[in-house]
Structures are given as C-alpha cells and as structure tokens.
Amino acid sequence: MLRSGALLCSFRLADDMDAVLRLLDKYADVPISFADACLVRMTETLNDPMLLTTDADFRIYRRHGRQIIPCVLPR
Hints:
There is one protein chain. This protein is of the alpha+beta class. The chain is built from 2 helices and 4 strands, in the order ααββββ. Helix content is about 35%, strand content about 10%. A two-stranded parallel sheet has the order 1-4. Strands 2-3 form a two-stranded antiparallel ribbon. β2 (about 60-65) and β3 (about 65-70) form a beta hairpin.
C-alpha cells in the first residue's frame, strides 16, 4: 500500500520530537512505548483521527492532555 501510494504517512519524528518526548515523560509509569507515543502524537495532528489497535493502553492515553483517543479495539 505504501509503494502504490494508497497509504501515506506524513508524520515526521523530527518535527514532533518534543511532543513525543513529553508523552513518554507523562506516561512513564504506564509505561508507554516509543511507538505508542508516536501514535498518540499522530492523533493529535489530525482533526478527526481513528486509531485501529489491539493495545488496550490506548484507553488510558489522552490526546491534547485530556481528550480520549478515538479507537477501534477488538472486544
């Protein structure tokens, strides 16, 4: 999908490093992985995000400090 251009990723860690590091600090006691912090940050950069995940920790994480991250999680 990436090769065909059907899926694009505009996230650049260099542009969002400070925000990702703040998330790693904020959720250090959960703990949050680097990948999860990047995904949380990605949701913060979109107006209407929907995260598809099997990781229940995304029920704990918040975008922009207090907003629930819209997720599709298996039951």
